[in-house]
Amino acid sequence: MLVSIDVVAIHMKEQLKEWGSDILDGKYLQMRCVAHIINLAVKDGLKETGKSVERVRESVKWVKSTPTRSRKFKDCIEFEKIASKKFVSLDVATRWNSTYLMLESAKPFEKAFQTLARNDKKFKKHLNEKKYGNESLGITTSDDWSSVGRLIDYLKLFYDLTVRVSGTSYVTLHLLFDEVCEMYTMISEWADGIDFEVSCMADRIKSKLAKYWFEDELENSKMNRLCYMAVILDPRRKVEYLEQALKNVYGESRGKALVEEVKDGMPLVFDHYKHRLGLPGSSPIVIQEDVQEHSGSGDGKKKGKIWGDFRKMKRDAILKETRKSSKSEFDRYLEEEEDDEVVTRALVGSEEDEYKFDILGWWSRSGMKYPTISEMARDILVVPISTVASESAFSTGGRVLDSFRTSLSPEVVEALICCEDWIRSSDSELVADGEDEGDEVVFQNVYAAFQARSASAPAGTSGSSRAGPSGSSPATHVLVSSPTMSQVEEDYVDNNSDENDETYVDVEPDEE
Protein backbone atom coordinates (compact mmCIF):
# COMPACT_ATOMS: atom_id res chain seq x y z
CA MET A 1 0.00 0.00 0.00
CA LEU A 2 1.36 3.41 -0.98
CA VAL A 3 1.25 6.16 1.63
CA SER A 4 1.65 9.82 0.69
CA ILE A 5 4.37 11.94 2.22
CA ASP A 6 1.79 14.28 3.71
CA VAL A 7 0.20 11.40 5.64
CA VAL A 8 3.62 10.31 6.92
CA ALA A 9 4.35 13.87 8.06
CA ILE A 10 1.07 14.05 10.00
CA HIS A 11 1.79 10.81 11.85
CA MET A 12 5.35 11.92 12.56
CA LYS A 13 4.12 15.20 14.07
CA GLU A 14 1.74 13.30 16.33
CA GLN A 15 4.48 10.92 17.45
CA LEU A 16 6.97 13.72 18.17
CA LYS A 17 4.32 15.59 20.13
CA GLU A 18 3.64 12.46 22.19
CA TRP A 19 7.35 12.17 22.95
CA GLY A 20 7.50 15.86 23.85
CA SER A 21 10.26 16.54 21.32
CA ASP A 22 8.35 18.57 18.73
CA ILE A 23 9.07 22.24 17.99
CA LEU A 24 6.11 24.59 17.61
CA ASP A 25 3.75 21.64 17.05
CA GLY A 26 5.79 20.44 14.07
CA LYS A 27 4.99 23.55 12.04
CA TYR A 28 8.32 23.44 10.21
CA LEU A 29 8.80 19.68 10.24
CA GLN A 30 8.20 18.71 6.61
CA MET A 31 10.92 19.65 4.11
CA ARG A 32 10.22 18.45 0.59
CA CYS A 33 13.06 17.03 -1.49
CA VAL A 34 14.28 19.60 -3.99
CA ALA A 35 15.65 16.99 -6.38
CA HIS A 36 12.29 15.20 -6.55
CA ILE A 37 10.42 18.44 -7.20
CA ILE A 38 12.79 19.39 -10.01
CA ASN A 39 12.50 15.88 -11.44
CA LEU A 40 8.69 16.07 -11.53
CA ALA A 41 8.66 19.55 -13.04
CA VAL A 42 11.26 18.98 -15.76
CA LYS A 43 9.80 15.60 -16.76
CA ASP A 44 6.45 17.33 -17.18
CA GLY A 45 8.04 20.12 -19.20
CA LEU A 46 9.87 17.75 -21.54
CA LYS A 47 6.51 16.50 -22.79
CA GLU A 48 6.41 19.69 -24.86
CA THR A 49 9.77 19.21 -26.58
CA GLY A 50 8.23 17.60 -29.68
CA LYS A 51 10.01 15.86 -32.50
CA SER A 52 13.51 17.24 -32.03
CA VAL A 53 14.37 15.24 -28.91
CA GLU A 54 12.64 12.12 -30.24
CA ARG A 55 14.65 12.26 -33.47
CA VAL A 56 17.91 12.53 -31.54
CA ARG A 57 16.84 9.71 -29.22
CA GLU A 58 16.03 7.36 -32.12
CA SER A 59 19.27 8.28 -33.86
CA VAL A 60 21.33 7.49 -30.77
CA LYS A 61 19.37 4.30 -30.16
CA TRP A 62 20.06 3.14 -33.71
CA VAL A 63 23.79 3.90 -33.43
CA LYS A 64 24.11 2.16 -30.06
CA SER A 65 22.09 -0.93 -31.00
CA THR A 66 24.88 -3.01 -32.62
CA PRO A 67 28.69 -2.97 -32.89
CA THR A 68 28.49 -2.65 -36.67
CA ARG A 69 26.36 0.47 -36.51
CA SER A 70 28.64 1.95 -33.86
CA ARG A 71 31.67 1.41 -36.07
CA LYS A 72 29.92 3.05 -39.03
CA PHE A 73 29.09 6.06 -36.88
CA LYS A 74 32.67 6.27 -35.63
CA ASP A 75 33.80 6.28 -39.26
CA CYS A 76 31.52 9.27 -39.84
CA ILE A 77 33.06 10.98 -36.81
CA GLU A 78 36.54 10.46 -38.24
CA PHE A 79 35.39 11.65 -41.66
CA GLU A 80 34.06 14.90 -40.17
CA LYS A 81 37.27 15.23 -38.10
CA ILE A 82 35.37 15.65 -34.84
CA ALA A 83 37.92 15.57 -32.03
CA SER A 84 36.14 14.03 -29.07
CA LYS A 85 36.99 11.12 -26.79
CA LYS A 86 33.37 10.83 -25.71
CA PHE A 87 30.62 8.87 -27.39
CA VAL A 88 26.87 9.22 -27.53
CA SER A 89 24.83 7.85 -24.62
CA LEU A 90 21.21 6.71 -24.68
CA ASP A 91 18.76 8.11 -22.16
CA VAL A 92 16.19 6.44 -19.95
CA ALA A 93 12.73 7.80 -20.69
CA THR A 94 11.81 8.19 -17.01
CA ARG A 95 15.01 10.09 -16.10
CA TRP A 96 15.10 13.65 -17.41
CA ASN A 97 18.74 14.08 -16.36
CA SER A 98 19.72 11.18 -18.60
CA THR A 99 17.86 12.91 -21.45
CA TYR A 100 19.93 16.03 -20.81
CA LEU A 101 23.15 14.00 -20.82
CA MET A 102 22.06 12.24 -24.02
CA LEU A 103 21.44 15.54 -25.81
CA GLU A 104 24.69 16.99 -24.48
CA SER A 105 26.66 13.97 -25.69
CA ALA A 106 24.97 13.94 -29.13
CA LYS A 107 25.22 17.67 -29.95
CA PRO A 108 28.97 17.66 -30.81
CA PHE A 109 28.30 14.90 -33.37
CA GLU A 110 25.68 16.82 -35.35
CA LYS A 111 27.67 16.65 -38.60
CA ALA A 112 28.45 12.96 -38.05
CA PHE A 113 24.73 12.16 -37.81
CA GLN A 114 24.09 14.12 -41.01
CA THR A 115 26.87 12.20 -42.78
CA LEU A 116 25.44 8.92 -41.52
CA ALA A 117 22.00 9.85 -42.88
CA ARG A 118 23.49 10.55 -46.32
CA ASN A 119 25.60 7.39 -46.51
CA ASP A 120 23.49 4.79 -44.69
CA LYS A 121 20.16 4.09 -46.37
CA LYS A 122 19.05 1.74 -43.58
CA PHE A 123 19.50 4.47 -40.98
CA LYS A 124 17.51 6.97 -43.02
CA LYS A 125 14.80 4.40 -43.79
CA HIS A 126 14.49 3.45 -40.11
CA LEU A 127 13.85 7.05 -39.02
CA ASN A 128 11.46 7.73 -41.89
CA GLU A 129 9.42 4.63 -41.07
CA LYS A 130 9.35 5.40 -37.36
CA LYS A 131 6.03 6.90 -36.32
CA TYR A 132 5.65 10.01 -34.19
CA GLY A 133 1.96 10.30 -33.50
CA ASN A 134 0.21 9.97 -36.85
CA GLU A 135 3.14 11.09 -38.96
CA SER A 136 6.63 9.98 -39.86
CA LEU A 137 9.45 10.86 -37.48
CA GLY A 138 12.16 11.58 -40.07
CA ILE A 139 15.87 12.33 -39.75
CA THR A 140 17.32 15.17 -37.71
CA THR A 141 17.53 18.56 -39.42
CA SER A 142 19.57 21.68 -38.70
CA ASP A 143 16.50 23.19 -37.03
CA ASP A 144 16.30 20.16 -34.76
CA TRP A 145 19.89 20.61 -33.66
CA SER A 146 19.33 24.32 -33.05
CA SER A 147 16.35 23.46 -30.87
CA VAL A 148 18.37 20.80 -29.04
CA GLY A 149 21.16 23.30 -28.41
CA ARG A 150 18.76 25.74 -26.77
CA LEU A 151 17.16 22.95 -24.78
CA ILE A 152 20.57 21.87 -23.46
CA ASP A 153 21.18 25.38 -22.16
CA TYR A 154 17.83 25.40 -20.38
CA LEU A 155 18.14 21.93 -18.89
CA LYS A 156 21.66 22.71 -17.67
CA LEU A 157 20.14 25.15 -15.16
CA PHE A 158 18.13 22.36 -13.54
CA TYR A 159 20.92 19.82 -13.84
CA ASP A 160 23.47 22.06 -12.10
CA LEU A 161 20.92 22.97 -9.45
CA THR A 162 20.26 19.31 -8.71
CA VAL A 163 23.99 18.68 -8.32
CA ARG A 164 24.44 21.64 -5.96
CA VAL A 165 21.52 20.87 -3.66
CA SER A 166 22.49 17.18 -3.50
CA GLY A 167 25.87 17.92 -1.94
CA THR A 168 26.81 16.05 1.23
CA SER A 169 29.91 17.96 2.38
CA TYR A 170 28.26 21.36 2.92
CA VAL A 171 24.98 22.83 4.18
CA THR A 172 22.44 23.66 1.52
CA LEU A 173 19.31 25.12 3.13
CA HIS A 174 20.43 28.75 2.87
CA LEU A 175 21.24 28.18 -0.82
CA LEU A 176 17.73 27.12 -1.79
CA PHE A 177 16.19 30.59 -1.69
CA ASP A 178 18.69 32.00 -4.21
CA GLU A 179 18.15 29.02 -6.48
CA VAL A 180 14.36 29.30 -6.38
CA CYS A 181 14.49 33.04 -7.12
CA GLU A 182 16.86 32.49 -10.04
CA MET A 183 14.73 29.66 -11.33
CA TYR A 184 11.53 31.71 -11.13
CA THR A 185 13.13 34.60 -13.02
CA MET A 186 14.59 32.41 -15.77
CA ILE A 187 11.41 30.38 -16.29
CA SER A 188 9.36 33.59 -16.54
CA GLU A 189 11.75 34.86 -19.23
CA TRP A 190 11.47 31.58 -21.17
CA ALA A 191 7.68 31.65 -20.96
CA ASP A 192 7.63 35.17 -22.43
CA GLY A 193 10.18 34.36 -25.15
CA ILE A 194 9.60 33.96 -28.88
CA ASP A 195 10.56 30.28 -29.00
CA PHE A 196 7.16 28.59 -28.95
CA GLU A 197 8.45 25.14 -27.98
CA VAL A 198 10.54 26.47 -25.09
CA SER A 199 7.70 28.76 -24.02
CA CYS A 200 5.31 25.82 -23.73
CA MET A 201 7.90 23.83 -21.80
CA ALA A 202 8.47 26.76 -19.42
CA ASP A 203 4.73 27.13 -18.77
CA ARG A 204 4.43 23.46 -17.80
CA ILE A 205 7.50 23.60 -15.55
CA LYS A 206 6.34 26.78 -13.87
CA SER A 207 2.89 25.34 -13.25
CA LYS A 208 4.43 22.28 -11.60
CA LEU A 209 6.92 24.19 -9.48
CA ALA A 210 4.22 26.61 -8.34
CA LYS A 211 2.61 23.78 -6.36
CA TYR A 212 5.70 23.50 -4.17
CA TRP A 213 7.68 26.76 -4.21
CA PHE A 214 6.23 29.79 -5.94
CA GLU A 215 4.12 32.24 -3.94
CA ASP A 216 3.32 34.99 -6.41
CA GLU A 217 -0.41 35.00 -5.68
CA LEU A 218 -1.44 33.04 -2.58
CA GLU A 219 0.41 31.67 0.42
CA ASN A 220 2.01 28.36 -0.45
CA SER A 221 1.72 26.07 2.55
CA LYS A 222 4.10 23.57 0.93
CA MET A 223 7.02 26.03 1.02
CA ASN A 224 8.70 25.47 4.38
CA ARG A 225 9.41 28.85 6.00
CA LEU A 226 12.74 27.54 7.27
CA CYS A 227 14.02 28.26 3.76
CA TYR A 228 13.39 31.97 4.39
CA MET A 229 14.69 31.86 7.96
CA ALA A 230 17.93 30.32 6.71
CA VAL A 231 18.46 33.43 4.56
CA ILE A 232 18.08 35.66 7.62
CA LEU A 233 20.55 33.46 9.49
CA ASP A 234 23.12 34.12 6.76
CA PRO A 235 25.10 37.13 8.14
CA ARG A 236 25.79 38.32 4.61
CA ARG A 237 22.10 38.64 3.75
CA LYS A 238 19.70 38.96 6.69
CA VAL A 239 16.25 40.56 6.30
CA GLU A 240 17.36 43.29 3.91
CA TYR A 241 18.31 40.84 1.18
CA LEU A 242 15.29 38.62 1.79
CA GLU A 243 12.93 41.58 1.39
CA GLN A 244 14.63 42.86 -1.75
CA ALA A 245 14.67 39.44 -3.42
CA LEU A 246 11.03 38.63 -2.60
CA LYS A 247 9.85 41.99 -3.90
CA ASN A 248 11.82 41.53 -7.13
CA VAL A 249 10.35 38.09 -7.68
CA TYR A 250 6.77 38.43 -6.44
CA GLY A 251 6.15 42.17 -6.52
CA GLU A 252 6.03 44.89 -3.86
CA SER A 253 2.90 43.91 -1.96
CA ARG A 254 3.32 40.13 -2.03
CA GLY A 255 7.03 40.36 -1.19
CA LYS A 256 6.38 42.61 1.78
CA ALA A 257 3.65 40.31 3.10
CA LEU A 258 6.01 37.31 2.95
CA VAL A 259 8.75 39.18 4.80
CA GLU A 260 6.35 40.18 7.56
CA GLU A 261 5.16 36.59 7.87
CA VAL A 262 8.73 35.35 8.32
CA LYS A 263 9.59 38.15 10.75
CA ASP A 264 6.55 37.23 12.83
CA GLY A 265 7.36 33.52 12.82
CA MET A 266 11.07 33.67 13.55
CA PRO A 267 10.75 35.18 17.07
CA LEU A 268 8.55 32.21 18.00
CA VAL A 269 11.41 29.88 17.12
CA PHE A 270 13.78 32.18 19.02
CA ASP A 271 11.58 32.04 22.13
CA HIS A 272 11.52 28.25 21.94
CA TYR A 273 15.32 28.15 22.03
CA LYS A 274 15.44 30.70 24.85
CA HIS A 275 13.21 28.47 26.93
CA ARG A 276 15.24 25.37 26.06
CA LEU A 277 18.54 26.99 26.98
CA GLY A 278 17.28 28.02 30.41
CA LEU A 279 18.33 31.68 30.29
CA PRO A 280 17.01 34.30 27.87
CA GLY A 281 19.39 34.83 25.03
CA SER A 282 22.39 33.02 26.47
CA SER A 283 23.83 29.62 27.15
CA PRO A 284 22.75 28.11 30.46
CA ILE A 285 24.89 29.17 33.40
CA VAL A 286 25.07 26.79 36.34
CA ILE A 287 24.93 28.76 39.60
CA GLN A 288 26.57 27.11 42.60
CA GLU A 289 24.52 28.17 45.62
CA ASP A 290 26.72 26.65 48.32
CA VAL A 291 30.04 28.43 48.76
CA GLN A 292 32.93 26.05 49.05
CA GLU A 293 34.97 26.81 52.18
CA HIS A 294 38.74 26.80 52.14
CA SER A 295 40.41 24.25 54.37
CA GLY A 296 42.82 25.56 56.98
CA SER A 297 42.61 28.38 59.50
CA GLY A 298 39.64 30.47 60.54
CA ASP A 299 40.95 33.36 58.48
CA GLY A 300 40.72 31.14 55.42
CA LYS A 301 37.07 30.41 56.12
CA LYS A 302 36.38 34.10 56.62
CA LYS A 303 37.96 34.90 53.28
CA GLY A 304 35.85 32.17 51.70
CA LYS A 305 32.68 33.81 52.99
CA ILE A 306 33.75 37.25 51.77
CA TRP A 307 34.61 35.80 48.38
CA GLY A 308 31.26 34.01 48.28
CA ASP A 309 29.38 37.23 49.05
CA PHE A 310 31.33 39.03 46.34
CA ARG A 311 30.55 36.26 43.84
CA LYS A 312 26.86 36.44 44.73
CA MET A 313 26.83 40.18 44.15
CA LYS A 314 28.57 39.87 40.79
CA ARG A 315 26.35 36.94 39.84
CA ASP A 316 23.18 38.94 40.45
CA ALA A 317 24.54 41.86 38.47
CA ILE A 318 25.54 39.64 35.55
CA LEU A 319 22.20 37.86 35.49
CA LYS A 320 20.36 41.18 35.58
CA GLU A 321 22.40 42.52 32.68
CA THR A 322 22.04 39.25 30.79
CA ARG A 323 18.27 39.29 31.09
CA LYS A 324 18.19 42.90 29.99
CA SER A 325 20.43 42.46 26.95
CA SER A 326 19.04 39.08 25.90
CA LYS A 327 15.65 40.55 25.13
CA SER A 328 17.20 42.34 22.18
CA GLU A 329 19.60 39.63 21.00
CA PHE A 330 17.52 38.88 17.95
CA ASP A 331 16.99 42.57 17.22
CA ARG A 332 20.68 43.25 17.71
CA TYR A 333 21.56 40.58 15.17
CA LEU A 334 19.14 42.02 12.61
CA GLU A 335 20.15 45.64 13.13
CA GLU A 336 23.91 45.45 13.62
CA GLU A 337 26.25 45.51 10.66
CA GLU A 338 28.66 42.62 11.02
CA ASP A 339 32.22 43.97 11.08
CA ASP A 340 33.63 40.47 10.78
CA GLU A 341 36.45 40.36 8.24
CA VAL A 342 35.28 37.02 6.85
CA VAL A 343 31.77 38.35 6.19
CA THR A 344 33.11 41.53 4.60
CA ARG A 345 35.44 39.57 2.35
CA ALA A 346 32.58 37.25 1.31
CA LEU A 347 30.44 40.28 0.41
CA VAL A 348 32.91 42.48 -1.48
CA GLY A 349 35.70 40.05 -2.31
CA SER A 350 36.12 37.64 -5.18
CA GLU A 351 33.80 34.78 -6.10
CA GLU A 352 36.31 32.43 -4.50
CA ASP A 353 35.99 34.31 -1.19
CA GLU A 354 32.22 33.99 -1.39
CA TYR A 355 32.48 30.30 -2.21
CA LYS A 356 34.82 29.64 0.74
CA PHE A 357 32.53 31.33 3.27
CA ASP A 358 31.75 28.77 5.99
CA ILE A 359 28.41 29.78 7.49
CA LEU A 360 28.47 27.11 10.21
CA GLY A 361 32.01 28.11 11.15
CA TRP A 362 30.94 31.74 11.45
CA TRP A 363 28.09 30.87 13.80
CA SER A 364 30.42 28.70 15.85
CA ARG A 365 32.74 31.69 16.35
CA SER A 366 29.78 34.00 17.10
CA GLY A 367 28.31 31.81 19.81
CA MET A 368 29.39 34.16 22.60
CA LYS A 369 27.88 37.19 20.89
CA TYR A 370 24.63 35.52 19.84
CA PRO A 371 24.27 32.45 22.09
CA THR A 372 20.60 31.73 21.42
CA ILE A 373 20.58 32.47 17.69
CA SER A 374 23.74 30.40 17.20
CA GLU A 375 21.85 27.41 18.60
CA MET A 376 19.02 28.12 16.15
CA ALA A 377 21.43 28.42 13.26
CA ARG A 378 23.13 25.15 14.14
CA ASP A 379 19.83 23.25 13.99
CA ILE A 380 18.17 25.08 11.10
CA LEU A 381 21.04 25.37 8.62
CA VAL A 382 21.87 21.67 8.72
CA VAL A 383 18.37 20.65 7.57
CA PRO A 384 18.90 18.78 4.27
CA ILE A 385 16.83 19.91 1.29
CA SER A 386 17.42 16.76 -0.74
CA THR A 387 17.06 13.06 0.02
CA VAL A 388 19.54 12.09 -2.69
CA ALA A 389 22.33 11.30 -0.24
CA SER A 390 20.06 9.22 1.98
CA GLU A 391 18.51 7.33 -0.92
CA SER A 392 21.87 6.56 -2.53
CA ALA A 393 23.00 4.95 0.73
CA PHE A 394 20.22 2.36 0.48
CA SER A 395 19.66 2.15 -3.27
CA THR A 396 21.31 -0.49 -5.45
CA GLY A 397 20.24 1.15 -8.71
CA GLY A 398 23.54 2.92 -9.41
CA ARG A 399 25.91 0.28 -8.10
CA VAL A 400 25.80 -2.15 -10.99
CA LEU A 401 25.74 0.23 -13.96
CA ASP A 402 26.45 3.92 -14.15
CA SER A 403 24.04 6.60 -15.39
CA PHE A 404 24.79 5.70 -19.03
CA ARG A 405 23.21 2.24 -18.74
CA THR A 406 22.06 1.10 -22.16
CA SER A 407 21.97 -2.26 -23.98
CA LEU A 408 24.03 -4.48 -21.73
CA SER A 409 23.70 -8.24 -21.56
CA PRO A 410 24.07 -10.18 -18.28
CA GLU A 411 27.57 -11.23 -19.35
CA VAL A 412 28.63 -7.58 -19.70
CA VAL A 413 27.22 -6.74 -16.29
CA GLU A 414 29.17 -9.64 -14.82
CA ALA A 415 32.31 -8.36 -16.53
CA LEU A 416 31.86 -4.91 -15.06
CA ILE A 417 31.30 -6.26 -11.55
CA CYS A 418 34.43 -8.42 -11.85
CA CYS A 419 36.46 -5.47 -13.09
CA GLU A 420 35.42 -3.35 -10.15
CA ASP A 421 36.31 -6.12 -7.72
CA TRP A 422 39.73 -6.54 -9.27
CA ILE A 423 40.45 -2.82 -9.36
CA ARG A 424 39.54 -2.47 -5.69
CA SER A 425 41.83 -5.34 -4.73
CA SER A 426 44.84 -3.88 -2.95
CA ASP A 427 47.23 -6.54 -4.29
CA SER A 428 45.98 -6.41 -7.87
CA GLU A 429 48.91 -6.77 -10.26
CA LEU A 430 46.83 -5.24 -13.01
CA VAL A 431 46.37 -1.99 -11.16
CA ALA A 432 50.01 -1.92 -10.07
CA ASP A 433 51.19 -2.34 -13.64
CA GLY A 434 49.15 0.62 -14.86
CA GLU A 435 49.18 2.96 -11.89
CA ASP A 436 51.65 5.33 -13.52
CA GLU A 437 49.87 5.39 -16.85
CA GLY A 438 46.38 6.55 -15.88
CA ASP A 439 42.97 4.99 -15.54
CA GLU A 440 42.66 4.14 -19.23
CA VAL A 441 45.60 1.74 -19.06
CA VAL A 442 44.19 0.15 -15.91
CA PHE A 443 40.84 -0.49 -17.56
CA GLN A 444 42.49 -1.82 -20.71
CA ASN A 445 44.56 -4.26 -18.64
CA VAL A 446 41.55 -5.42 -16.65
CA TYR A 447 39.44 -5.78 -19.77
CA ALA A 448 42.17 -7.76 -21.53
CA ALA A 449 42.46 -10.06 -18.51
CA PHE A 450 38.72 -10.64 -18.49
CA GLN A 451 38.72 -11.52 -22.21
CA ALA A 452 41.59 -13.97 -21.66
CA ARG A 453 39.78 -15.70 -18.78
CA SER A 454 36.51 -15.78 -20.71
CA ALA A 455 38.25 -17.40 -23.68
CA SER A 456 39.88 -20.06 -21.49
CA ALA A 457 36.69 -20.83 -19.51
CA PRO A 458 34.90 -24.13 -20.23
CA ALA A 459 32.02 -23.88 -22.69
CA GLY A 460 28.68 -22.97 -21.16
CA THR A 461 30.20 -21.73 -17.91
CA SER A 462 30.58 -18.12 -16.90
CA GLY A 463 31.24 -18.53 -13.20
CA SER A 464 34.93 -19.30 -13.75
CA SER A 465 35.49 -15.71 -14.78
CA ARG A 466 34.44 -14.49 -11.35
CA ALA A 467 37.81 -15.24 -9.80
CA GLY A 468 40.11 -12.24 -9.48
CA PRO A 469 43.30 -11.72 -11.50
CA SER A 470 45.43 -13.16 -8.73
CA GLY A 471 43.16 -16.04 -7.85
CA SER A 472 41.11 -14.01 -5.39
CA SER A 473 37.69 -15.03 -4.18
CA PRO A 474 34.55 -14.37 -6.23
CA ALA A 475 33.51 -10.74 -6.58
CA THR A 476 31.72 -9.36 -3.56
CA HIS A 477 31.71 -5.68 -4.48
CA VAL A 478 29.34 -3.93 -6.85
CA LEU A 479 30.26 -1.38 -9.42
CA VAL A 480 30.31 2.31 -8.61
CA SER A 481 30.30 5.10 -11.17
CA SER A 482 33.65 5.88 -12.74
CA PRO A 483 34.50 8.58 -15.29
CA THR A 484 36.06 6.01 -17.63
CA MET A 485 33.67 3.13 -17.09
CA SER A 486 31.33 4.14 -19.91
CA GLN A 487 34.18 3.60 -22.39
CA VAL A 488 34.73 0.05 -21.10
CA GLU A 489 31.02 -0.63 -21.53
CA GLU A 490 31.12 0.66 -25.11
CA ASP A 491 34.20 -1.40 -26.02
CA TYR A 492 32.72 -4.54 -24.57
CA VAL A 493 29.36 -4.01 -26.28
CA ASP A 494 31.12 -3.41 -29.58
CA ASN A 495 32.76 -6.83 -29.38
CA ASN A 496 30.12 -8.96 -27.70
CA SER A 497 26.57 -7.67 -28.29
CA ASP A 498 24.34 -8.46 -31.24
CA GLU A 499 21.13 -7.35 -32.89
CA ASN A 500 19.00 -9.03 -30.23
CA ASP A 501 20.41 -7.21 -27.18
CA GLU A 502 17.72 -5.99 -24.84
CA THR A 503 17.52 -2.54 -23.31
CA TYR A 504 17.34 -2.42 -19.52
CA VAL A 505 15.73 0.62 -17.94
CA ASP A 506 14.70 1.76 -14.49
CA VAL A 507 11.21 3.12 -14.01
CA GLU A 508 10.43 5.85 -11.52
CA PRO A 509 6.97 6.89 -10.36
CA ASP A 510 5.64 10.12 -11.80
CA GLU A 511 4.80 11.59 -8.43
CA GLU A 512 6.30 11.51 -4.96
UniProtKB/TrEMBL annotation:
Region annotation Disordered: where it falls in the sequence: 456-512
Comp. bias regions, Low complexity: 456-476
Domain annotation hAT-like transposase RNase-H fold: ranges: 166-273
Occurrences of domain HAT C-terminal dimerisation (ranges): 330-423
GO molecular function: DNA binding; protein dimerization activity
Regions of compositional bias (Acidic residues) in chain numbering: 488-512
InterPro entries recorded: hAT-like_transposase_RNase-H (IPR025525), HATC_C_dom (IPR008906), RNaseH-like_sf (IPR012337)
Matching Pfam families: Dimer_Tnp_hAT, hAT-like_RNase-H
Protein name per its UniProtKB record: Transposase
Organism: Linum trigynum
Upper taxonomic lineage: Eukaryota, Viridiplantae, Streptophyta, Embryophyta, Tracheophyta
